[in-house]
Amino acid sequence: MRKLAVLGTFAAVSIGGGLLLAGRPSMAQQKGAAAPDSVKAPILAAADTAALKGPKQPILFRHDIHAGQYKIDCQYCHYSVTRTTEPGIPSVQTCMGCHLVIGGTEASAKAEIKKLRQYWAEKDKIGGARLEWVRVHNLAKHAHFPHMRHVKVMGTKGCASCHGDVARMPQVFKANNINSMGFCINCHVERKASRDCSLCHY
Question: Is this model's pTM higher than 0.85 or not?
Answer without folding.
Answer: no
